[in-house]
Design a protein that fits this description.
single chain, 534 residues, alpha+beta, eight-stranded mixed sheet, six-stranded mixed sheet, 22% helix, 36% strand, globular
């Protein structure tokens, strides 16, 4: 049985392929799935640590049923997906003598879900597809790969969420699709072309194959009759959780309301109500002061709060980025056949109105916001092939003498298809007398529209976009023993190029380097894998 998991910031969806019906179905897990009549089965992405030393945790609806989600308790975790692979400002909780990282919380969460799946459906274990945000750094993908090693599943594939959503809507008669995935923690936009072909003799990447048996892999598949090609991408660390926090801040200022997990839940309820009606009301009772408050908000006030937080400005920047990438390939906005909205935040009327500023209403689809990604990921097991390109740029660190600081020089640009044809060459020389080796720090370069800061505000995990044209960078090998790429024998001296470095990306997205010593004509490294790129 093939299972697909859409691990979301606010909710997680699980789907399987039903061979009898010939279509995907979204699964319920007893005790973990929320009891929501108006939505498909969803597991709240919540976790409560009962005993960290023994890895005893509650996940999903269990957390709410036992009332563990309304306490200012360091054992309660929500929105933890956005903290995985990100440098957190502040202190992580220490529970039962253990430092609990977001990576560990995420591992507990996925392990519990897989365990519950195998209990409910014993034949689970053959194949698993996991979806990932389009803007995730390599640290997140590497973490997911490590988690896969511990999961009792034979084969694991990874597919980015917007591409999965395009497949999930099943628009076989449409070719050019724009997927707007707006969930609890991220906004991902992806322009995808669905091509029906006759197949080729060559092999192309089928998503990213992470695991086969006990081995970590990133292999190619055999020929497939259909292809989903990603043409343009953009992403923001922005989602429904940020909106909840803005509403809490608004009521804290307007009514002196305390910022607690309970008020965050009330704010979320108001937000959901305003997607269905123009006026929303909730009643808050403080068990400390025995005072009650009535929280009221209408759509006009709600949209004004969004504007004050530059919400729509950020959305415009992301959309502009995708459309500019498309124009460089000769594609105009009018050429897009359909726009697919997925994720809970995409259900906000103001968001849908914003989309209609760019596209005709007849092209916009929003009927499968919660299960399109998980169900689309299942298409990897049904003859859908995925071609992709590198979303991030990659570069090397150098000392910027003019600004007296380190800067980054791109060597591989975002949008590079793989495997690469010709390698990128770089000449390097020694900077010191009698230099024994040459070091090179490689980095994954994020968007240049502004850096992201993740920090704690009391018990809340907050993501903030920093102003200015800063480039978010995640070093890939800035650690002891990993920086050195060439031992120089004899030692190097300043004044001339000493080594030639050739960078190549193979079909499995591995960045490989070859290093030649220009003085001795020796090959110091040959086609050495450094890191798997995203």
């Amino acid at each position: 049985m093939t299972i697909a998991i859409d691990f979301g910031t606010s909710n997680t969806a699980i789907a399987r392929w039903n061979p009898a019906a010939g279509q995907p179905e979204t699964l319920k897990l007893p005790g973990l799935t929320a009891q929501l009549m108006q939505n498909p089965p969803l597991i709240p992405s919540l976790l409560y640590v009962e005993d960290a030393a023994r890895s005893q945790v509650l996940v999903g609806q269990q957390v709410r049923d036992r009332g563990c989600d309304v306490k200012t308790d360091p054992r309660f975790f929500r929105s933890f997906k956005r903290g995985i692979g990100t440098g957190i400002q502040g202190f992580l909780p220490e529970l039962d003598g253990q430092i609990v990282t977001f990576e560990r919380v995420g591992e507990w969460f996925l392990t519990q879900i897989i365990g519950s799946l195998k209990t409910t459906w014993p034949d689970v274990g053959q194949s698993l597809v996991l979806t990932v945000p389009v803007d995730s750094f390599e640290a997140y993908r590497n973490w997911l790969g490590q988690v896969c090693q511990a999961l009792p599943v034979e084969q694991v594939r990874m597919l980015d969420e917007p591409t999965a959503a395009a497949l999930g809507y099943g628009l076989a008669d449409r070719q050019l699709l724009l997927v707007i995935d707006f969930g609890g923690g991220t906004l991902d936009l992806s322009l995808v072309r669905l091509d029906a072909g006759t197949g080729t003799a060559g092999k192309k990447p089928l998503g990213f194959l992470l695991k086969w048996g006990d081995k970590m892999l990133a292999e190619s598949s055999a020929q497939k009759p259909k292809t989903a090609r990603v043409l343009a991408k953009a992403g923001l660390n922005l989602g429904g959780t940020d909106i909840d926090n803005w509403l809490v801040d608004y009521f804290a200022t307007a009514q002196g309301l305390a910022k607690t997990p309970l008020t965050a839940r009330l704010a979320e309820r108001l937000k959901i109500q305003l997607s269905l009606q123009r006026q929303a009301n909730e009643v808050y009772f403080s068990d400390e002061t025995f005072e009650s408050y009535e929280l009221g908000l209408d759509r006009a006030q709600f949209e004004e709060i969004l504007k004050e937080q530059q919400f729509f400005d950020n959305l415009d920047n992301a959309m502009t980025g995708v459309l500019q990438q498309a124009r460089r390939q000769g594609i105009e906005g009018s050429d897009i056949d359909a726009v697919l909205l997925v994720g809970g935040t995409s259900q906000i009327p103001a968001v849908q109105s914003w989309v209609r500023q760019y596209f005709e209403p007849s092209k916009i689809r929003c009927e499968k916001p919660f299960e399109a990604i998980a169900q689309g990921a299942l298409q990897l097991s049904q003859g859908i092939e995925v071609k992709d390109f590198l979303y991030h740029s990659y570069g090397i660190r150098y000392w910027n003498r003019r600004d007296n600081c380190h800067s980054w020089h791109p060597i591989i640009k975002a949008g590079q298809s793989y495997p690469m044809g010709e390698p990128v060459e770089l000449m390097l020389g020694a900077s010191l007398e009698n230099q024994p080796s040459i070091e090179l720090i490689l980095g994954e370069l994020g968007a240049e529209t502004g850096a992201t800061e993740v920090y704690f505000d009391g018990d809340r995990l907050v993501t903030r976009q920093l102003s200015g044209n800063q480039t978010a960078v995640q070093p890939l090998n800035d650690r002891e023993g990993a920086r050195s790429i060439a031992k120089l024998t004899p030692p190097g001296y300043p004044g001339s190029d000493r080594i030639k470095v050739m960078f190549q990306v193979d079909a499995q997205r591995f960045l490989r380097i070859t290093v030649e010593d220009l003085l001795t004509n020796n090959t110091l490294l040959e086609n050495q894998p450094v890191v798997q790129l995203s």
